[in-house]
Each structure stands twice: as structure tokens, then as C-alpha cells.
Design brief:
It is a single chain. By secondary structure, this protein is mainly alpha-helical. It starts with a helix and ends in a 7-residue tail after the last helix. The chain has 16 helices and no strands.
Length: about 300
């Protein structure tokens, strides 16, 4: 009992001592509650036949009806396959910004380094509309630069944008070009925190720059790599809506039919009022993504790395 009283007294003393800091944190906590936690009540719509006039509390409950409808939909497994394929191919590019950051760290000419960094960061600030327009400029059948070069070489123009065999590769290249530079910033920041004495000791032992990269730089930033991988797994069953929507056309529609497009077509595009059904689709994605984050975090923890939980 004495220990509990002393603990409670110490806690009250600490709260009182840092009362102004806690007071400064109240606005942030209020905003976080209103912006992140209050909207969570919308999840209830997935278990209702939601009616805007009745509200969430007044709408009739339907249990798992919308989830059964989703899983029995003939399009469901095609959407799941397309989403996993696109996300899986993008996941294969995960190491690229890591090695890009390691290579940039080895550049000694500061002007050249800044030029390269500016060049690779710039695509991140372009909208998907611009990226898709550039893709059309390069790959379109009649006006595309690539097809013009093929014709000049004596070949026949090829419809890259209408090919089900090429569309996934085009999506991956677009995503890589747009995000690789920006994603490398996190790893560059982690590399800047490495103790330079490790490199000096390695060079004294005869290690070259490549060996320093693989034996010092990469192991030192591995905790950051693990955290970024866990966060990446949280979006494995999600794809970028703008990209897939703008790249869609009747000939590749079967390959780009993903959950984001399905939600759009069953809500905004048709003026539908299937609030509950589309909420159920979104909740399914969130549950799977959360499960993958927890699984990846558990696996990395078992391997001796510190996760995010």
C-alpha cells in the first residue's frame, strides 16, 4: 500500500511539474481526436444499411451482409489478384531508394550531388496527371517517341498502353520514377547519423568504398529499413487510385480493376448510395493491411530487429 501511495504521489508531482507542457499538448490532442478518432464511427456503416436521413445510430443493422456480398461478388477475386500483383511488383522496387541513398552518400562533388538530388526529387511533386501525360507522350501508338524510334529502325509501332502484358510494367516504372528520389531522403538522413569513425577504422584495415557500403552503411541503417518495410506492408492491398484511374482503358480494364476503382464506380461515378457496401470494402482493405503490418512487425521482432510496436 505504501508503494502504491508513493507511486501515485510521484505521478501527481510529475504531472504538476510539467503541467504547462501538458497544457500546450491539449490543442494537438483535441485536433487528433477530432480528425483521426471521431471519423472512426463511420466504420459502423459497414454493418448497416446506412441511410443519411436516419444517421448512423438510426440506420438498421445488417451484420456481415455487405461482407458476404463482397466475397461472393465475381469481381472480388480478380480485384484482389490485380491489387496484389501491382503492390507486389512495387514492393520488389523497395530496395532501390536504399541503394540510391547509399550511392548518393558516396558522391563527393557537392554541386553534382545537389543536381542529382534535385533531378530525382522533382518527379515526386508532379501530379499523376502529368506523369500519365508524359507516359502517353512516350508510349502512344501514333505520337509516342518510343514508337517513332521503332518505326525509324524499321519496325512496326506497338500499342504499349493497350497491352495487358505491358501495363503492369508501365505502372511499376511510373511509381518508381515518381517516388524513388523522395523515398531515398529517409535513408540519406539515417546514413548521416552513422559514426564516421567506423569508416575511418575500416579504411585503416584496407576496406574499399564498396566494402564500407555493404559492411557499415547498410547494417547501420537496417533499423530504418525495417521500419519503412513494415510501413510499406501497411499498404500492400492498396494501390494509387489516380494512377490506375488515369491509365485505365477498355483493353486493360480487366488488369486494372482494383478495389479503389471498384469503390469509385460503385459510389461517385454512378451517383450510387451504396454507402455501407463501399465502407465494407474499405474496412476489408484496412483490416488486411493492419494484419500485414502486425505480421511483418512480429517477424522482424523475432529476427532481432526493433519494430514499430
Amino acid at each position: 500500500m505504501k508503494g502504491k501511495k508513493e507511486t501515485g504521489k510521484t505521478l501527481r508531482r510529475q504531472i504538476w511539474e510539467y503541467r504547462w507542457i501538458y497544457l500546450l499538448g491539449i490543442p494537438g490532442l483535441v485536433v487528433m481526436f477530432l480528425m483521426y478518432y471521431m471519423p472512426l464511427r463511420g466504420i459502423l456503416m459497414a454493418f448497416q444499411d446506412y441511410n443519411p436521413h436516419l444517421g448512423i445510430l438510426g440506420s438498421p443493422w445488417t451484420g456481415l451482409k455487405h461482407f458476404r456480398t463482397l466475397f461472393s461478388d465475381p469481381k472480388f477475386y480478380n480485384m484482389l489478384k490485380n491489387t496484389l500483383v501491382i503492390s507486389g511488383l512495387n514492393l520488389l522496387t523497395f530496395p532501390v531508394p536504399i541503394f540510391l541513398a547509399m550511392l548518393l552518400n558516396e558522391v563527393r562533388n557537392l554541386k553534382f550531388k545537389k543536381f542529382i538530388q534535385t533531378s530525382i526529387y522533382l518527379p515526386h511533386f508532379m501530379s499523376w496527371a502529368i506523369v500519365v501525360s508524359l507516359t502517353f507522350f512516350l508510349l502512344s501508338t501514333e505520337q509516342g517517341v518510343v514508337n517513332k524510334l521503332i518505326v525509324m529502325a524499321g519496325g512496326e509501332p506497338f500499342a504499349f498502353l493497350f497491352s495487358t502484358k505491358w501495363i503492369y510494367l508501365i505502372l511499376v516504372v511510373q511509381s518508381l520514377w515518381k517516388s524513388v528520389g523522395w523515398n531515398s531522403i529517409v535513408y540519406l538522413a539515417a546514413i548521416s547519423g552513422i559514426d564516421q569513425s567506423l569508416y575511418e577504422a575500416a579504411k585503416m584495415d584496407g576496406a574499399n568504398r564498396f566494402q564500407c557500403m555493404m559492411k557499415i552503411t547498410l547494417p547501420s541503417i537496417m533499423p530504418t529499413v525495417i521500419v519503412m518495410l513494415i510501413l510499406r506492408m501497411g499498404s500492400i492491398i492498396s494501390v494509387d487510385f489516380e494512377q490506375t484511374f488515369l491509365m485505365n482503358n477498355p483493353l486493360v480494364k480487366s488488369k486494372l480493376e482494383v478495389f479503389e476503382i471498384f469503390i469509385y464506380n460503385n459510389s461517385i461515378a454512378t451517383g450510387s448510395t451504396q454507402y455501407s457496401y463501399t465502407t465494407a470494402v474499405g474496412l476489408f482493405k484496412s483490416v488486411v493491411n493492419t494484419a500485414l503490418v502486425c505480421l511483418t512487425n512480429w517477424i522482424t521482432s523475432r529476427r532481432g530487429y526493433e519494430g514499430v510496436m
